[in-house]
Specification:
219 residues; alpha+beta; 7-stranded antiparallel beta sheet; two-stranded antiparallel sheet; 35% strand
């Protein structure tokens, strides 16, 4: 008698909890990108920054959301807060990614590390546990990030989560240019990612990237 292997159903959505002062960004279209950029400009301006400085923060948010959308992100959330010692900007993106055809993506992640470089960038590779999911792969460090041709340094954490019933993985990426708070941000990103759970009843954001707008289809 031939054994029958049960195939896990592929989730249709997911749930991810973020702090109360965070905002869910719509990655659906350029109009939502503009709304979020305008909100950041207003917060920065009200916090005492000049028009030029507020514009820089708004444009940074715009680049992040635009890159998320064109890269196939299914969800984005973030915060922009102004404190006495300066602004805090952080984002978390969720994307569905097709891993390389050869090899185990978790094994590849945990087999490769990068020591600190002369320019101050570094990367550490490990595994982590998400209560509702199990073992996941994780890479975090200080990296140079390029968005729309503009490069800047960020604290970045990638968490690679296998998707049941699929060859794809869910990639949860937390990033922030606030390098002085990097360790606290890594803890925050890990805490947010630990709330991840899959859904099968069409609850939460769908695991299907929004269609690119006409202006981005050829990019």
């Amino acid at each position: 008698m031939t054994a029958v292997t049960a195939i896990s159903p592929t989730p249709t959505g997911f749930l991810l909890r973020t702090p109360e002062d965070w905002v869910d960004f719509s990655v659906a279209d350029e109009a939502s990108e503009n709304r979020m950029a305008n909100e950041v400009w207003t917060r920065a301006h009200d916090g005492g920054f000049t028009d030029e400085q507020a514009g820089q923060y708004a444009e940074q948010l715009r680049r992040s959301v635009r890159q998320a959308r064109t890269a196939g992100a299914v969800h984005a959330a973030g915060t922009f807060q102004v404190y006495e010692d300066g602004p805090l900007t952080a984002t978390v993106l969720v994307s569905v990614v097709t891993p390389p055809a050869t090899g185990d993506i978790l094994g590849a992640l945990t087999a490769v590390g990068q020591p600190a470089r002369a320019d101050g960038t570094w990367r550490r590779v490990s595994t982590a546990q998400i209560p509702a999911i199990g073992t996941v792969g994780r890479v975090h460090g200080i990296q140079n990030v390029t968005q729309d041709g503009v490069s800047f340094r960020c604290a970045v954490m990638h968490t690679v989560v296998p998707l049941p019933g699929s060859a794809n993985v869910l990639l949860v990426t937390g990033s922030s240019p606030n390098l002085a708070e990097a360790e606290e941000l890594f803890e925050l990103f890990a805490t947010i990612t630990a709330t991840l759970n899959f859904t099968w009843e069409e609850d939460g954001p769908a695991l299907t990237p929004p269609a690119a707008s006409s202006g981005e289809a050829g990019s």
